[in-house]
Amino acid sequence: xxxxxxxxxxxxLKFGSGASxxxxxxxxxYGARRVILVTDAGVAATGHPARIADQVRATGIEVTIxxxxxxxxxxxxxxxxxxxxxxxxxxxxVVAVGGGSSIDTAKAVNxxxxxxxxxxxxxxxxxxxxQAPTHRLLPLIAVPTTTGTGSESTTICVLDVLALKxxxxxxxxxxxxxxxxVDPALTATQPTMVTAAAGMDIxxxxxxxxxxxxxxxxxxxxxxxxxxxxxxxxxxxxxxxxSMGLLAGSFRRAVAGGPGDGDEQRLVREEMALAATFAGLGxxxxxxxxxxxxAYPIAGRVRDYRPAGYPDDEAIVPHxxxxxxxxxxxxxxxxxxxxxxxxxxxxxxxxAAEGSGPDVLPxxxxxxxxxxxIPNGLAxxxxxxxxxxxxxxxxxxxxxxxxxxxxxxTPDDLAGVFxxxxxxx
Length: 425
Prior knowledge:
By secondary structure, this protein is α/β, with parallel strands linked by helices. Strands 1-8-5-4-2-3 form a 6-stranded parallel beta sheet, with helices on both faces. Helix 10 crosses helix 15 and helix 13 runs parallel beside helix 14. The protein is globular and about 60 Å long. The chain starts with 11 loop residues before the first strand and ends in a 5-residue tail after the last helix.
């Protein structure tokens, strides 16, 4: 019997310039008197977290700041944040101010200050035990300062397990933030490459959820078997299409405009923030597939690549960049599972796109990536053909994501995608 039910969930949303000034009021509505604010050093340097903390304190709520979230969290960095919060607590609520790294760190803090055990107890199998929380989590307000990750809408916390050189995650509906506060003004200082990489994350969220396996093509589930990623469905389609339409008009302009606060930049930032929000509302329920599964080992096994606009004290392939690097080939591979959706997506992103074959969407993506300064494939970030086997091994660990792909994905299929992604133009 095939599935007849799809599910949809999302956090409460507050959107608009100045929305981050109202967080004290929002926390008060949850009865919070003592909160922890999680951010990272780079975001802290912008002054946004301190300003938000002061505005919250002005409402009579005590705020403790943790500003050492790691860009691209690791098991070690999450443990540092958890230990800090356990020592400084208890708290009534959690606030995350930053990109996906800060928000994911706050999710881990929320989970492990309200539930017993250690990180590995909750990390997805086969890396961890994939246990479900047994106690209710605290209210979590997520305040993104980058336009892209969608973490403010999702049930996922992503991390690198350093000893295994693998990127994995924790996934449970309880991790979804209570409230997403999207204030486009907070992205005014976002570096150009961060805009490009995070924007590719928006785009792939929308594309992957739009081309995901249709919910009705899965086997029927019992209520207790339902998971947040239920496959493409009519509601997620609506959000994904709208996100891609916004990106078509704003993405290149956002990258070209760079950081700043001019009228054009403010307009484009708002459109990008809306695109990110809509994509998050879509993929947070439909799911993502091959490009995101591939991104985990690409980011987890980086050697010495250091992109502009990111901390240069260690090698990093930012998440959105890692996702984008195999996207053209991944969508060439999935084309035959749903040709009409791939072509519809290509024309949403580029109304001038012509053709009817498997190259249309990959060509649209490659042109965009080249225009906004994304590296020209895996070779440019340090990978060679000899790395393909270990990249395939890492991607295969992401069965939760690959299960959402619109067609079966074999090791040979992934190897072909990785090899085809060494260079795009």
